Amino acid sequence: MLVSAKEMLTKAKAGKYAVGQFNINNLEWTKAILLTAQENNSPVILGVSEGAGKYMGGYDAIVGMVNGLIKGLNITVPVALHLDHGSYEGALKTIEAGFSSVMFDGSHYSIEENIEKTKELVKITSEKGISLEAEVGSIGGEEDGVVGAGEIADPQECKAIADLGVTMLAAGIGNIHGQYPENWAGLSFEALDNIQKLTGDMPLVLHGGTGIPEDMIKKAISLGVAKINVNTECQLSFAAATREYIEAGKDLQGKGFDPRKLLAPGFEAIKATVKEKMELFGSVNKA
Ligand code: 13P
After folding, report:
1. How confident is the model at residue 153 (pLDDT cuts 50, 70, 90)?
2. Does the residue 286 lie in any domain?
3. CATH number of the domain encompassing residue 66
4. Fewer beta carbons under 10 A from the terminal one: N or C of the chain?
5. Strand, helix or coil at 225?
6. 65 lies in a domain?
7. Contact present, 210 and 230 (Cβ < 8 Å)
């Protein structure tokens, strides 16, 4: 059964670890992440961008697939199915389809409009027991067509949004979606600390988890980050393992072209990446 992300994140914040959000693209991705969470006795959040939602044939198809896999694979660890960087309309649609958690990314609106729309969604999600992530200060880079400038969030604006009663808050602290450029300035821990001081118990969310050095991840967790999003890193490990299989000519040997064989190395690579992140984030055995 899908659960809201509230309880797992409240526990993570209090226990000084973070729960990973891993974005899904298809059945292999979803199965790999769910099995790894179960094997490591870790809570997990499956992220779905609006673009990935379209790609997979709509939100109903995703809810059906995820619920079916949870049942078929005997997954007993807490799993939240979460809309990533959603629009207001996307949030309503995913709630309707049966998602257990949504992000409303109002960071590109004025703070007044962001507050207004987030407030409406707080009302809708809290009535249904669904967790809600809000965003202040856009995340840099591009993810599925959502482009952000990479701002450092204003702590007072973070407090204003946190006070609305959202479940978790994504605040830009110099993080970027995708791979980090050579000249990246790093995360702003000063900003994170100021945000944490003003938002108290609120679980903070670190987007752009791919490529952030381990020491920065650990420091961010010590300063209140309780959810870390990883997307590109699973894509890269899947692609590298698939490339290796094809370049070794294995698809041409015997029945190596069978999709269950062809996609197996990439599937195992996603599992290894997710396990590594769960260990780094400290969520192993926290289910
Ligand atoms: P990366 O693709 O950089 O890991 O970021 C993922 C993310 O933040 C999803 O919202």
Report:
1. very high
2. no
3. 3.20.20.70
4. N
5. strand
6. yes
7. yes
Structure tokens that stand for 282 in this block: 């400290």
Nearest Cα residue to atom 1 of ligand 1 = 208
Q: Is the dihedral of CA 112, 113, 115, 116 positive or negative?
A: positive
Distance from Cα 210 to the centre of ligand 1, integer Å: 6
What's the pLDDT score for residue 34? 98
pLDDT in tens, 119-128: 999 999 999 9
Distance, CA 68 to ligand 1 centroid (Å)? Answer: 26
Q: Which domain holds residue 111?
A: 6-240+270-281
Is 81 inside any structural domain? yes
Kindly state if the Cβ of 233 falls inside 6 Å of ligand 1: yes
| pLDDT band (50, 70, 90) for residue 149 | low
Ligand 1 pocket, residue 177 CB under 6 Å: yes
In the chain, how many domains are there?
Answer: 1
84 is an active site residue: yes
Backbone φ and ψ for 171, nearest 5 degrees, come out as -125, 130
The proportion of the chain whose per-residue pLDDT surpasses 90, expressed as a percent, equals 92
3-class secondary structure, 201:
coil
> Which listed residue (60, 84, 163, 193) is catalytic?
84
Which of 45, 205, 207, when mutated, tests ligand 1's pocket best, judged by the most ligand atoms within 8 Å of its CB? 207
Q: Establish whether residue 210 lines the binding site of ligand 1, counting it when its CB lies within 6 angstroms of any ligand atom.
A: yes
Tell whether 216 is covered by a domain.
yes
The residues, any chain, with a CB within 8 Å of residue 165's CB and separated by 6 or more, are 122, 126
Q: Could you tell which of 19, 22, 23 is best to mutate to test the pocket of ligand 1, judged by most ligand atoms within 8 Å of the CB?
A: 23
